[in-house]
Structure prediction request, 118 residues.
Amino acid sequence: MIRLLQAGKYRLAETKDKTKVLILAGRGLSWHSDGKKRDELSFLRKSHTIAQNLGHGFFRLYEVKNEPGLPGQQHLELCKGQGKWQGYVLPVGLPTDDKKHVSIIPTAELISVPKGRN
Prediction:
């Protein structure tokens, strides 16, 4: 089963101190990368001055359960423009009050686009 949880506009930006900021439907998240396989999302703790925009477009957040070939977790997909999408697996979903820091893992698996069309 694949269920669309949320869809809307996103913006990816970078602050003067090189912090990446992901804004999903007006909700700001800090995107931390340690240069390894897994990155991390957390709530923004304070206002940041944006130094540069890295991208913007549409996003879709899905819940996946019992689907062959797809991990049973939340999937975030960001449209990079001209029909190109980047998928991410969120093993425990987006940050919440209980889970303030969550992993975000890039994946080649896409739900929004039929296979062979990205």
Summary: Residues 42 and 101 are 5 Å apart (CA to CA). The beta strands are 2-15, 20-24, 27-33, 39-43, 50-64, 74-81, 84-90, 101-107. The longest strand covers residues 50-64.
